[in-house]
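Re-run requested by the PI after the first attempt was lost when the workstation crashed. Everything re-entered from the original request form. Ligand of interest: flavin-adenine dinucleotide.
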Amino acid sequence: MIEASERAAMLESVRGAIASAGDDVGTALAEVGWLEMLDAEPDDAIEIVFSAIGAANATASVLDDVVVSALGREPRADLAVVLPSFASWQPPGRIEAPEVAGQGLATARANGAAEVLVVCGTASEPSLVGLPSSAISVESARGVDPSAAVRVVRVHGSASNPAPVDPGAWSAAVGRGRRAVAYEIAGACRAMLDLARNHALERVQFDRPIARFQAVRHRLAEALVAVESLEAALAAARDVPTAETAALAKAVAGRSAHTVARHCQQVLGGIGFTTEHAFHRYLKRTIALEGVFGSADEIVVDVGRRLLSERRVPTLVEL
Amino acid sequence: MPPNNAGTAESTPAIDLAAYRAELNAWLDANHERLAPRYDPPGTIDDQVAQMQRVKSILFEAGWMQRGWPERVGGSGGPPMLRTELGAALAARDLADPGLFSLIEVLAPTLIDFAPPELAADAVPRLLSGAELWCQGFSEPDSGSDLASLRCRAAPEGGNADTATNWIINGQKVWTSLAQFSDRCVLLTRTGPADSRHRGITAFFVDMDSPGITVAPLEMLNGVLEFAEVFFEDVVVPAERMLGELNGGWAVAMDILPYERSSCFWQRIAFLYGRLQRLVELAPDGDRFAEIVGEAYIQLHALRARSRATQHRLAATGTIGAETSIDKVLVATAEQTIYDAVRRLLPGVIEIDGSASGELWRNEYLYSRASTIYGGTAEVQRNIIARRLLDLGSEG
Ligand SMILES: Cc1cc2nc3c(=O)[nH]c(=O)nc-3n(C[C@H](O)[C@H](O)[C@H](O)COP(=O)(O)OP(=O)(O)OC[C@H]3O[C@@H](n4cnc5c(N)ncnc54)[C@H](O)[C@@H]3O)c2cc1C
């Protein structure tokens, strides 16, 4: 954990880099030392960078680096990874010797990377295959999110030398990936709330700013409660970094994003329904991210099944 | 900020909370027989009150009740989180009702922060040891959410506030939890002009056996007589029983917030984990049920994460404020979600199960409907969030 002052400086340089990056946010982040930060202080790096990406609705293929490093490999700008399929958190590949096949999600980096890592098998017995990017075909780059931050890819290559992966490393990759995505969602939620709050203060109807109407105020209050409960779940997942706390943070992210988007959209009225206004990009990004490393619906059922089968309700965090 | 803040000013250097928790739990395990209720839960409100007072007296004798309270009121010092851990452990083990037990956190700090030192030193140990029960007389028939409109009047005997040795109280309170069992009441009265709102309120520490006080218990919708109407007719209260300044009662009322929103909530959360635990022991398998349980669990987890952060902020900075309205919304929502889950997973239990267990779930289910009403309603919290946290300016 780094000092508050250092943290603030990091946050500022990351925000600045994203703001002035134009299209190539990845390079801008690399220039301010993203990979070094990730290596030295992964928790701070993930929190700062992904919250900032979410808040700016930026697109950068840095989730690959988070997963690659959790798998024990050295992250590089030309090393990509195939993520689990939409709403799932199982390894995306399967080995059918001598071939490897599979389907999953990927960031834009998978196109043209020197190497693409594919985790195969099951969560309890995973193995890792490195493929050329020619083995990855983009099945769909069109979806709700106009920036296509994640796309659907198909894997088809040869399974030469699969390396066994410690199940703990896969679980860590899922956990860190979940936290990263949840931070991005949290950043987007804050941004949606800011947009709606500003609109409420500026938009005049019935001779007064709509912020004076209690129905509007309560919607924004509800959105703030949702954002802050997500931030609390993320802080707990950081302080007590287990698979469970990361899973719950990702589930809370899904629920909170839904609540925030619903209320903010309503407060924004017609303008929020246009592509002229920034709101839609945040809304769409959170919808797309919902499926990365497991959706709230899937996680909730999974967690509930475990509570019922173990007949035990763990508290996970203490004072 | 009150002069002798009971929450923080005396916080001693950080102690190992995990070690304390382990020691406490080992002791509670070893003394389970002595501490466990002597009746089949839920029991009556009389059973529950007697149980709580018995548990307090055992814990006081063993020195646990004093932990985390200032030495000048008979405590043994240490950070307030020690009290929170104790309350949470009792709630998790069902040894005392968290709503009743955590009233200590609502009342004792008021005395510590605002009573003359001798009064606090004399009174607080009685509350901690189970010798006494106290209640909070704030709400009135015409003053609920709008507490600053309260009318119960205190007038100086003889007419001069500066020289009066007694104050005479007339009026009515309502929904006063445990009034009929209580030895004392922290009472808010009107001492300024009728329209003086929060500037004309004064707090008193009133003996409930004073002549002129009548208590009429009210039945809650779960059948329990937990709260009461309290009538005051020419009740004489000595001037030394004034808490804080004349017309400074609003500060007294507001001072409760940091305790209620930290320690009390943590105790309630521990209790809710216990109830969810009980539910998963009884619930049928199946994905439909898994979803309901999972949903309740993630809400409870987010609440716990939030409350934990709040308590650490209080310990570090000495204050918490309007941002705890978020904690209040989360606690109320999670509580209702959990009991809604009970109702969905155990069909027929709340509705028509005549056993003691049915009685318990039914009582608690019905009580949970109040979580969005007491301690500031859900709407009032949202008003505060909009005004103070989102800075939306005034309403209307
Ligand atoms: C179980 C229980 C225990 C209690 N224990 C105590 C106790 O020990 N001591 C004590 O003093 N009091 C106690 N109370 C009283 C409690 O504090 C009040 O019930 C509460 O403050 C609400 O006041 P009210 O019931 O008069 O409702 P009202 O204030 O009349 O509210 C009715 C409805 O109107 C809404 N409303 C009111 N004002 C606004 C507004 N400005 N904007 C939007 N909506 C608004 C409310 O949210 C609510 O939905 C207890 C209550 C309960 C249920």
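Saved to the shared folder this time. Chain A has three domains: 1-59, 72-164, 168-310.
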